[in-house]
Amino acid sequence: MSPNLNAFNKKVPAYAAVVFWAMILGYAWMAPRVYSYARNGYADFSMFYTAGQIVHRGQGHQLYDTAMQMQVQREFSQSAVLRNRALLYLRAPFEALLFVPFAEVSYIQAYRVWVFLCGILVLATAWLLRERIAALRTLPGWLYYPAYFSFFPIAYGFVLGQDCALMLLLIALFLVGLLEGRDVFAGCMLGLALIKFQLVLPLVLILVLKRLFRVLGGFVVVASALTAVSAWIVGWSGLKAYPAYLLRLNHVPAAVAIYPGLMPSLRGLVEGWTDPMHSSRTLDIVTAALSLVVLVWAAQQWDTAVPRTSRTYLAGLSIALMAALLAGYHAFSYDLSLLCPIALLALQSALRDEELDTPTRRILLFGAAGLLFAPLYLLLIWKAKLNLMAIFPLLLLWGYSRAIKQWRSHEGHGL
Predict the structure, then answer these.
(1) Fewer CB under 10 Å: which end of the chain, C or N?
(2) For residue range 112-130, what is the model confidence (pLDDT) as tens digits?
(3) In the Cβ-directed half-sphere of 231, how many Cα atoms lie within 13 Å?
(4) CA distance from start to end of the chain
(5) Would you list the domain boundaries of the chain?
(6) pTM of the predicted structure, to 2 decimals
């Protein structure tokens, strides 16, 4: 590596920390306006609170009744009153149980508590991964922890009252379980992550291709239990009607803000150029075929025979996670929160791993920098081209694939 490039790499952490802290201060400055937005019921948390209220009232069998959701939401949401439309609950029935305790307090009190809990979950996730993955401990704390809270998908999830912090923790537990050889535990955590089944099922396909049956066993046990819980909440008829409910809403994108042009995924890259606000059956088929190719390729990159303490194993697992996210049929900007630790690992490799050639380090650096640079998200949202954010996970797939080939030529490397 040239001396100039090496000197630049030494300065990157300081530059990145300045950006991260500046974004956190920016978020704090915008907090009062955001709070007003949420208080009036415009945040996505409205749908979770609505689901909790419906189940709390013993009306779980009407959980996916849009009229019922509208009726409940009008009780606390100025947004629902003004627009005469509810923010519809899309998650599986079992997740509604999580929000039943919040039904005991007012909507805005519940929102405050939920956002606070999400902050705790993110902090716990960051600490857990840093404790379990040595490579992350090489990043200074003044850079590492602010990176999570400045990461736009996570911050945006806070604003909306989304459940992405919970999803991040569950995927982190899945990852740690695999790295420590606790396959059944990892599968159980992945089963709990079915709160975002559209992101989990592509990963399950990779696990099937890799024949990780102990992981799959844990997953099936938890998935079966959650199915039974869901049936208890909405009844078997309600559970059978759930897929039709989702398909119906998919054909009315404005009702649930499902716009391919705003999806940072393969679907967004394929379908976001014609009519970015509507999907096409033909392009859906193209997306499905491309997603299958990416998932099979990702499975081939993940060498599960190497020691789980090796960088090769962690890089392959990172590829599998990114491929699953890219292949998810419904992916939103806050779903990229799952990539924060992967982006930080890529940044660490780009800056410190001298066994990688310069092109590979640059690819990893550009991919990580694109994901971690919050203003870029704002620009692409403004231009209605958030689908372009999928380019950066694709860069990381490429960079990690190159890195794996180079690491395989070395022996005895730990995390």
Answers:
(1) N
(2) 999 999 999 999 999 999 9
(3) 9
(4) 22
(5) 3-39+105-407
(6) 0.93
What single DSSP character describes residue 73?
H
The dihedrals phi and psi of 65, each to the nearest 5 degrees, come to -85, 110
Q: Which amino acid is at 15?
A: Y
Evaluated on CA atoms 87, 90, 93, 97, the torsion sign reads: negative
- Alpha-carbon torsion angle 383, 388, 389, 391, nearest 10: -160
Exposure of 375 in the CB half-sphere (CA atoms within 13 A): 6
- Cα distances from 372 to residues 20, 83, 382, 393, 411, in angstroms, run 8, 35, 18, 11, 31
* Residue 204 per-residue DSSP state: H
Rg (CA), the chain: 21
Q: For 207-236, b where at least 16 C-beta lie within 10 A, e where not — what string?
A: beebebeebbebbeebbeebeeebbebbee
Question: One-letter amino acid identity for 387?
Answer: N
Q: What is the DSSP letter of 412?
A: S
Residue 191 per-residue DSSP state:
H
List the one residue out of 136, 98, 96 whose CA is nearest residue 117. Answer: 98
Closest to 43 (Cα-Cα) out of 51, 32, 34, 31 = 34
- Quick: pLDDT tens for 40-78: 888 899 999 999 999 999 999 999 999 999 999 999 888
What does the DSSP 8-state code read for residue 310?
S
Distances (CA, A) of 74 to 71, 79, 95, 159: 5, 8, 22, 21
> Which of 2 and 299 is assigned the larger pLDDT?
299
